[in-house]
Design goal:
mainly alpha, 69% helix, Serine Threonine Protein Phosphatase 5, Tetratricopeptide repeat, two-stranded antiparallel sheet, 16 helices, 2 strands
């Protein structure tokens, strides 16, 4: 009897043990359900984020940057795993000048998307604009290593070479891009610009004409008009150059300070002083502390002063020479002086000759 009771105690588990194993089995059974619940919650947040991203992209297309930024920001609050939200938010940040944060979000978009080539190229362009040629080149090459037929990556690689003034390498990359996409207007413009830099203005005009054939809007594009005007000036076709530069000045956005400065130089070079001053007026309004803008203002003031002085000193080629003080230095508008070698002509000196009455035609 004792042996039977002992055997029974050993074979029958206690009530506590039973409840313990019931609890463990319940956890095991419920675990997949918990994971499924969390997974569904995460998926619903990602879906909501992507819907907001689509609305943000639509706002960008409708030129509503503030709405777009708000929508992309809300999308990221829903789910930081939406690569399109990072891309859109980076784009809006970049446009309003917050460039470092824009690069961080674009880098995250590239990572989450598995190195989407569109995002990678855009990130490379951002790095190039920030002066990081090495990073830009690496992104271009990484895209090309996976797909040699990506025109945007070839264009980015060409941009890195152009920024280093390596014209042959830049042209080679741009031509590769145009073989893939013949109507790539941005690349056509870069090719035309390189031809002008390398002393081939006729090729510049041919490239611009080809661009206009493919895109009718190129005939009124301010950057294309600027390059055309400078190429025409290189060919001494100054009347045509003046017309092209005047059209470029009318259409050039005020925030393109670098292009506005080139316009002033180009107009001054062919003796179009009044149009040059009008172009400069747009710059002065929002760039009063820019040293290059101040220098251009002094240069134009000096040219007008020479124009009103028929007895101004001239060089051997008939060009007017800068007025100098007793120390042989050129006085500037603000009282400073510019020390140059004696008898140095003005920047536009080839046009500053006796036939200056035409300067005031405009």
């Amino acid at each position: 009897m004792l042996r039977f009771n002992l055997k029974r105690r050993i074979s029958e588990p206690s009530l506590g043990t039973v409840w313990f194993w019931v609890f463990v089995c319940s956890l095991v059974a419920l675990a997949p359900g918990c994971r499924t619940f969390v997974h569904r919650e995460s998926n619903s947040q990602l879906v909501a984020a992507r819907q907001l991203s689509l609305r943000g992209a639509d706002a960008m297309q409708r030129s509503r940057p503030q709405d777009a930024e708000m929508l992309f920001s809300e999308a990221l609050r829903n789910s930081p795993l939406d690569e399109r939200a990072h891309w859109g938010y980076a784009t809006t940040l970049w446009k309003r000048g917050d460039r470092q944060r824009a690069i961080e979000h674009m880098r995250e978009a590239v990572r989450l998307s598995g190195r989407n080539p569109e995002y990678a190229v855009r990130l490379g362009e951002m790095n190039l604009d920030m002066g990081d040629r090495k990073a830009a080149r690496e992104y271009a090459l990484s895209v090309l290593s996976a797909n040699r037929s990506n025109a945007e990556a070839w264009a980015l690689l060409g941009d890195t070479h152009q920024s280093e003034r390596d014209w042959p390498a830049a042209l080679e990359c741009y031509h590769r891009a145009l073989l893939i996409r013949s109507d790539y207007s941005r690349v056509q413009l870069s090719v035309a610009e390189i031809y002008r830099h390398t002393g081939r203005p006729q090729r510049t005009l041919a490239a611009l004409d080809r661009m206009t054939d493919l895109h009718a809007s190129a005939s009124t594009d301010p950057e294309a008009l600027l390059i055309r005007g400078m190429a025409l000036a290189d060919l001494d076709r100054n009347a045509e150059a003046a017309e092209a530069l005047a059209m470029a000045s009318e259409r050039m956005p005020n925030d393109r300070v670098d292009k506005q400065i080139l316009l002033v130089h180009a107009q001054h070079r062919i003796g179009e002083l009044v149009p040059a001053r009008m172009t400069l007026g747009k710059l002065i309004a929002s760039n009063t502390n820019n040293p290059e803008v101040k220098r251009l203002q002094s240069m134009l003031d000096m040219s007008f002063a020479h124009l009103s002085d028929p007895n101004a000193p001239r060089g051997r080629d008939g060009s007017l020479l800068a007025i100098r003080d007793v120390d042989g230095k050129i006085p500037l508008q603000n009282g400073a002086t510019n020390s140059e070698s004696p008898n140095t002509p003005l920047l536009a000196s080839p046009m500053l000759n006796g036939d200056s009455a035409g300067w005031l035609r405009r």
